[in-house]
Amino acid sequence: MQLGEFLWQVIAIPGHAPDAIALYQPEHKLLISADALHLNDCGIINVAVHGWEALDAAAHTIHRLQQLDIALALPGHGPLITDVPASLERIAAMLAQFRADPEKLYRHLVRRVFMATVLACQPVSRSALVAWMLALPWTTDYLPTSGYADAAAQLHDLLTTFMRQGVIVEQDGLLACTVPK
């Protein structure tokens, strides 16, 4: 496919979304990765919606991207990725851990959805955030299998962890994320 003066390869990258694509420009070793590749992570893999095949598809996508000569990746979210091979290796290892221990995948998903909810709703009170999260289908899909019997307790624990890490701050009773969108 030609964009501007360059030819780009269109690559299927299922995992985060079954119909996702990436654009690769081999001459400049540039990848526009959408959500298949973030810095040391990938987009949420929703096995509740897409089935466990989505995890296998994501692992296959990462393996396929590892075969390309990529110097710079432009992800769907987050910073540019300059050490693409290292990032892909970390993601491959993470996906293998998810396959071996599904509870890790569930905890990862809940953390990611929690952070995305804070980003979307900020500034937000604790009670409004927890109520919002408890109403999301993600909560009913993943919280029961992520090691907690009480969804609200897990959400409060996540909030405490994120605040301790400095990625969520509270000012005047409202929560906000310190991570840029």
Explain what this protein looks like in three dimensions:
- The chain is α+β, with helices and mostly antiparallel strands.
- The protein folds into 2 domains: about 1-100, Metallo-beta-lactamase, Chain A (4-Layer Sandwich), CATH 3.60.15; about 105-175, Arc Repressor Mutant, subunit A (Orthogonal Bundle), CATH 1.10.10.
- It contains 7 helices and 8 strands; from the N terminus they run βββββααβαααααββ.
- The protein has helices at about 45-50, 55-65, 85-100, 100-120, 125-135, 135-140, 150-165, and strands at about 1-5, 5, 10, 20-25, 30-35, 70-75, 170, 175.
- The protein has a 4-stranded mixed beta sheet, with no helix packed on it. The protein has a two-stranded antiparallel ribbon with strand order 1-2. Strands 7-8 form a two-stranded antiparallel sheet.
- β1 (about 1-5) and β2 (about 5) form a beta hairpin.
- α2 runs antiparallel to α3 and α3 crosses α4 (about 100-120).
- The longest helix has 20 residues, at about 100-120.
- The protein is globular.
- About 30% of the residues are buried.
Descriptive tags:
181 residues; alpha+beta; Metallo-beta-lactamase, Chain A; Arc Repressor Mutant, subunit A; four-stranded mixed β-sheet; 8 strands; 48% helix
Summarize this structure briefly:
48% of the residues lie in helices and 17% in strands. The chain has 181 residues and is of the alpha+beta class. The chain folds into two domains: 2-100, 4-Layer Sandwich (Metallo-beta-lactamase, Chain A); 103-177, Arc Repressor Mutant, subunit A (Orthogonal Bundle).
